[in-house]
Amino acid sequence: MTTVQDVERSAVTGETVLEATGVTMRFGGLLAVNDVNLSVRQGEIVGLIGPNGAGKTTFFNCLTGLYKPTSGQVRFAPSPQQKVRPPYRRAWINGKRARILIEEEPDAAESAGLTPPVPSSLAPLPPKPRAVVRAGMARTFQNIRLFANMTALENVMVGRYCRTSSGALTSVLRGPKFRWEEAATRKRAQELLDFVGLGRSTEHLARNMPYGDQRRLEIARALATDPKLILLDEPTAGMNPQETRQASDLIFKIRDSGLAVVVIEHDMRFIFNLCDRVLCLVQGEALIEGTPDEVQSDPRVIEAYIGTGEDDEDERSQDDVPGEVQP
Ligand SMILES: Nc1ncnc2c1ncn2[C@@H]1O[C@H](COP(=O)(O)OP(=O)(O)OP(=O)(O)O)[C@@H](O)[C@H]1O
Question: Looking at the record, which segments are called Disordered (predicted)?
Answer without folding.
Answer: 306-327
